[in-house]
Amino acid sequence: MAATDELSGILMRRQAINEKLEDGVEVKPKYKFVNVYTEFHEFSRKEIKQYEHTFNKFDEGQDGFLDITEVKRMMERLGAPQTHLGLKAMINEVDEDGDNKISFREFLLIYRKARAGELESDSGLEAFARLTEINVDQVGVNGAKNFFEAKIEELAKTNKFHDEIVQEQEEKRREAEEKAMRKQRFKEKTALFQQ
């Protein structure tokens, strides 16, 4: 969404609120605060923290939502790419507020529905839940940490630019070391002349 579209949406909402207030109509806030620890009592705190870590890993915009492009990249990284219509269907399956994005609360709904068996077996959300589900009680926090670190490492290996970036960093490090060595040798030689 372009910044102008977002701004025009905000201004239109503000104008609608002002008009309702002028007419004496009460305007309810569009947002609500949700405590995921109390709402999702079927998950332990450890599990919610792990799901939050997973959510934040895929929330590239760091805006607290997964939009369609972030969901697309997430599914590609997990090895279960989806069509555009499939991605929209995935989002609509848990998008309760109709903003075409997945909030963290809606993200947790994926796992709730997966545990309850409410996700369709061929849906992208079922594949996502299966690929990212980890039982912290069985493997412990360190096991979960190792699982996700291994996943991240695997994803990094598949990134075609990863090797190039590592190689560039190595070259820069070597050049910096060589420069420091030349500088040290120069200082040693100048010290000979100053004696």
UniProtKB/TrEMBL annotation:
<protein>
    <recommendedName>
        <fullName>EF-hand domain-containing protein</fullName>
    </recommendedName>
</protein>
<dbReference type="InterPro" id="IPR040365">
    <property type="entry name" value="EFHD1/2"/>
</dbReference>
<keyword id="KW-0677">Repeat</keyword>
<feature type="compositionally biased region" description="Basic and acidic residues">
    <location>
        <begin position="168"/>
        <end position="181"/>
    </location>
</feature>
<feature type="region of interest" description="Disordered">
    <location>
        <begin position="168"/>
        <end position="195"/>
    </location>
</feature>
<feature type="domain" description="EF-hand">
    <location>
        <begin position="82"/>
        <end position="117"/>
    </location>
</feature>
<dbReference type="Pfam" id="PF21008">
    <property type="entry name" value="AIF-1"/>
</dbReference>
<keyword id="KW-0479">Metal-binding</keyword>
<dbReference type="GO" id="GO:0005509">
    <property type="term" value="F:calcium ion binding"/>
</dbReference>
<dbReference type="InterPro" id="IPR049025">
    <property type="entry name" value="AIF-1_EF_pair"/>
</dbReference>
<feature type="domain" description="EF-hand">
    <location>
        <begin position="46"/>
        <end position="81"/>
    </location>
</feature>
<dbReference type="InterPro" id="IPR011992">
    <property type="entry name" value="EF-hand-dom_pair"/>
</dbReference>
<keyword id="KW-0106">Calcium</keyword>
<dbReference type="InterPro" id="IPR002048">
    <property type="entry name" value="EF_hand_dom"/>
</dbReference>
<dbReference type="InterPro" id="IPR018247">
    <property type="entry name" value="EF_Hand_1_Ca_BS"/>
</dbReference>
